[in-house]
């Protein structure tokens, strides 16, 4: 939380220093076509800034951590315990490659969850503690990999495991480690260390070497050539590339389709989990509970025990009166967002006006405006995105949950004013891809959490969306 506060302070300070007249070259949040907007130009606090690269990387680690908590076998803490067993071997391998031990340990977390016999498919694919491909192990890393014998032994191991023949199982696994060194944890770590050494010699940087572990050296070199700079950091390549800026790089990264582009951020997230495991198990347990409560990290952004919610229509009306909720506009030309005509449609069933349920906290509204502006820009002016739902109170939420299977009976971020839904209804493939890019980039930056539902995308804004509050001036009196 302290790190997050420092990041927000840095971003806010950057906006304050730039003032109403941003310096030439400073990326701006796009204005509507024709400039029909109130207020001065707004610098984009989420654009790449070399002076803020460390903050962007910290955000990326936090923003990509949900999948590690949600999908680690047995949970993040159990996986960390398995991974920690290999620390002596990790440190030895890291010394040989001259890389950060914590980052190599994170690779073990991410690749195998600490299981030395992990397999992705068959033995010709990625196997072992560091998930080395058979061809890579044999041809690049000089490992003994007898695929045919390894496959035969793997089948026998599976039978022995089913039959509970523990002594036979131990013998077969030892034999397989000899014939296929990828299953030997010490040799797998040594092989990965050799790969990282080769990759760093080719690419010139440790961060790029780790990126290439998943993406491949040749693929990453193609990305770097498209970017055009001499040995840039991966953070620069990634965050400085959008559908309209270094567009060829963005297309290459998107084309992998296997999360290669976000691999480094996940490594950093795994490193953070391992550090918490050693230093603060209680905090790790707390985060694991919050990360797995929903299909996104929304409860990490706004924990239920500390986040005010609107229990009744009267409480929500009071929030409007205090300025804690601001009206969601119906002005697609200025915002790139359209308000669905049925927003707040259940209000009359509880004796209220639909207008009560057509608003957001100012920070969440600013985030919606940012999403609308960026999506329209990347989609070549196409739009708008249609927002179907905003704030609710718990009475409205209970009514909705009785008729909508997607609505939760438990803690809903809609009842806090931080969440909104956007219809999965797009003008074209380009419009859909532009929206997807904006969602993915903001999630990586830990600025939002989002979930794909059958008819809508459910978005929760982080509280540090306050850096976008200057966008509210664009609404004017609308």
Layout: helices, strands, pairs:
Elements: H1 2-18, H2 53-63, H3 66-71, H4 76-84, H5 87-97, H6 101-112, E1 119-120, E2 126-127, E3 132-133, H7 134-139, H8 147-163, H9 166-179, H10 185-203, H11 206-215, H12 217-227, H13 234-239, H14 247-256, H15 263-279, H16 281-291, H17 298-301, H18 313-321, E4 326-327, H19 332-335, E5 337-339, E6 359-360, H20 362-378, E7 385-389, H21 394-403, E8 419-423, H22 429-444, E9 448-452, E10 456-461
Jot down its keywords.
Lysozyme, 478 residues, globular, 52% helix, 22 helices, 3 domains, Muramoyl-pentapeptide Carboxypeptidase, domain 2, three-stranded antiparallel sheet
3D architecture notes:
- Helices cover 52% and strands 7% of the residues.
- With 478 residues, the protein is an alpha+beta fold.
- It has three domains: 44 residues, no CATH class; 167 residues, Orthogonal Bundle (Lysozyme); 176 residues, Muramoyl-pentapeptide Carboxypeptidase, domain 2 (2-Layer Sandwich).
- The strands form three sheets. The chain has a five-stranded mixed β-sheet with strand order 5-7-8-10-9. Strands 1-2-3 form a three-stranded antiparallel β-sheet. It has a two-stranded antiparallel sheet with strand order 4-6.
């Amino acid at each position: 939380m302290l790190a997050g506060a420092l990041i927000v302070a840095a971003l806010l300070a950057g906006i304050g220093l730039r003032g109403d007249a941003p310096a030439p070259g400073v990326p701006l949040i796009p204005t509507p076509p024709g400039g029909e907007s109130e207020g001065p130009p707004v610098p984009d606090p989420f654009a790449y800034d070399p002076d803020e690269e460390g903050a962007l990387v910290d955000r990326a680690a936090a923003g990509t951590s949900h999948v590690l908590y949600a999908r680690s076998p047995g949970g993040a803490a159990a996986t960390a315990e398995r991974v920690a067993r290999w620390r002596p071997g990790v440190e030895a391998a890291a010394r040989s490659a001259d890389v950060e031990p914590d980052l190599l340990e994170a690779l073990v977390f991410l690749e195998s969850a600490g299981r030395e016999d992990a397999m992705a498919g068959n033995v010709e694919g990625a196997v072992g503690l560091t998930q080395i491909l058979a061809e890579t192990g044999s041809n690049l890393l000089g490992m003994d990999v007898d695929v045919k014998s390894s496959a035969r032994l793997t089948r026998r191991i599976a039978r022995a495991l089913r039959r509970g023949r523990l002594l036979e199982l131990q013998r077969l696994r030892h034999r397989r480690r000899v014939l296929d060194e990828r299953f030997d944890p010490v040799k797998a770590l040594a092989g990965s260390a050799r790969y990282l050494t080769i990759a760093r010699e080719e690419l010139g940087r440790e961060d790029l070497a780790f990126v290439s572990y998943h993406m491949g050296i040749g693929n990453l070199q193609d990305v770097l050539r498209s970017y055009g700079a001499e040995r840039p950091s991966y953070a620069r390549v990634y965050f400085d590339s959008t559908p309209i800026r270094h567009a060829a790089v963005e297309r290459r990264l998107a084309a992998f389709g296997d999360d290669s582009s976000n691999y480094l951020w996940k490594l950093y997230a795994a490193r953070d989990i391992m550090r918490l495991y050693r230093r603060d198990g209680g905090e790790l347990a707390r985060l694991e509970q919050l990360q797995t409560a929903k299909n996104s990290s929304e409860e990490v952004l706004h924990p239920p025990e500390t986040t005010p919610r609107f229990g009744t229509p009267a409480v929500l009306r009071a929030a409007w009166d205090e300025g804690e909720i601001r009206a969601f506009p119906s002005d697609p030309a200025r915002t790139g967002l359209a308000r669905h005509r049925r927003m707040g449609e259940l209000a009359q069933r509880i004796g209220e006006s639909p207008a009560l349920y057509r608003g957001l906290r100012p920070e969440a509204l600013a985030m919606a405006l940012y999403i609308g502006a960026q999506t329209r820009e990347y989609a070549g002016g196409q739009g708008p995105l249609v927002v179907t739902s905003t704030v609710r109170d718990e009475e409205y939420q209970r009514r909705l949950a009785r008729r909508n299977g997607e609505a939760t009976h438990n803690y809903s971020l809609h009842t806090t004013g931080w969440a909104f839904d956007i219809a999965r209804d797009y003008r074209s493939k380009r419009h859909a891809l532009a929206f997807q890019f904006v969602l993915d980039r903001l999630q990586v930056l830990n600025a939002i959490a989002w979930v794909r539902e059958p008819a809508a995308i459910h978005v929760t804004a982080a509280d540090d969306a306050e850096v976008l509050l200057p966008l509210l001036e664009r609404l004017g009196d609308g």
